[in-house]
Amino acid sequence: xxxxxxxxxAAEPKSITFRELPIALxxxxxxxxxxxxxxxxxxxxxxxxxxxxIFQIHPIHFNRALRDGFNxxxxxxxxxxxxxxxxxxxxxxxxxxxxxxxxxLVYRFQ
Length: 110
What we know:
By secondary structure, the protein is mainly α. It contains four helices and no strands.
């Protein structure tokens, strides 16, 4: 189930499923949060710098995500915004966890 924005300006989905993500992002999500939006008590997973959710979206992106219509506090919105960042910046927004995901990508694509 994929929801698209009705805005004429928005060409990207505002919600996406895990299986629709590129394999690189799927692997990154396991390194960032165990591919989870919420912990066992139902609280949103936050990092030490207040990063949010499955892809540990950094606070520097919060205003842009909100402005562009992404709800990063919802799992599907968090994934959609991660895809938006990936399309714009490649893997640069997840370099802090590169030591976790890079070896997996290298192995997968050998």
